[in-house]
Specification:
Length: 166
Amino acid sequence: MTASLKTWLPILCLVPGMAIAAERCAIEKAVFVEATAGTVLSFKPVGSDAAVVSHLFTITGAKLKLDGNVMYDEESKRPGGMVTNNCPQGDATGAELRACTVWTGVPYALDVATGHIDILGAANTRAPDAILMPGFGPSIRHSTLWGKSGLKQVPWDLYEFKECKA
């Protein structure tokens, strides 16, 4: 092997991995995993440009299947996330929504390389390295859902990027 090939071979081997990271999918196709309880956060397209909701997602694990959404609040200039369990479809009263809501808060996007934390990006933005949902784990543990969830451990608040769905 020539000296120049020996120099460039390790670099060329790294290029495919860097390309994959740079070409990460839009958040609507992203799947994230939480390490402690193994729950999975999976985004899906909203389906309408006129929708008030910017992101839809599910959180699953053991017997757990929760629905979630993110809506941007123009006044506070940040997203508001909500995770629910079996909420009524269509027009629901405030009391009905409170009864089925498991977690509310601001979802944050994390950039592992820089350590930068920001609000979750808008629809069609690149999926972040991780998503932080502060207080999500304790909200599951202290809800009536805990006993029925089948989870053996309380989920952590951090979901790391796993893959892109086709």
